[in-house]
Amino acid sequence: MGCWSPLDAMEAYMRTLRLCEEFYKYCEEEEEEEDEGEPIPMEPKCVEYISALAAGNRARRMVDVEDGGMSPSVLALAAAARQTGGRVVCVRREREAGERLGRQVERLGLADVVEWRVEGRPRESVEQIGGVDFAVVDGGMGEEDCEEAVAALDVGPRGAVVVVSNLFGGGKSGAAAEGGRRRVQRRGRSSVVLPFGGGMEVIRIAGSKRRTFVVYYEDTKTICCCIPVLDCHANDSGVRKSKCVRHGVAYGESDSIKELCTNIV
């Protein structure tokens, strides 16, 4: 992700407060309690935190994966998108929920920043969204769907932040913790669990940005195209390594690519 922007985070925080107020006013005017379900209970810490985190990281491609229509996370991401000039893609399993969300988005004037998709299992829709900067995945969907959605994310070159909410639904904190470890092992670089929003896990996923450089040796007439990589799983100390694309040789900072490559030419 890019550099943290405290100004964007603060502006998104304020936008979220106003948007939540508009949503409740809309619920009263349109009698949402009878037509499309009860008003959504908002936990301020959860909504404002998500919005500030997304905007502060200057996220532009955001994804919300859950069941149902409008939710606190959609409002939070919409406020962040307004601040960063981004867009939110909401993934739903059932068409009825997607259509209900679409009506709510239109009435709240959020159609310019929010869209919705329905593709059966969440993974199928998530796989089609490229360059994700920020995502919110509802852990209440079930461990399998949650794991698949996180694994299917195609993150941008700067990496991404993923928020998994409702970890402690039904009091299954042990299962949630185990699921969190699997998510970090599969995709994450680091994670932390926060005690609000029904239990919220924040995962930072490393980007796929790679720089290529060419090494040329006149004495051996060897030309090698190399990609620097940082393999944190193989090397706990975080020592930067590189790989010769031509010969498939990995080497560290103290190794000589000339010696390694010419030995297999």
Automatic annotation (TrEMBL):
Superkingdom of the organism of origin: Eukaryota
Pfam name, any one: DUF1442
InterPro entries per record: DUF1442 (IPR009902)
Name by which UniProt lists this protein: Uncharacterized protein
Organism: Zingiber officinale (Ginger)
Source species taxonomy: Eukaryota, Viridiplantae, Streptophyta, Embryophyta, Tracheophyta
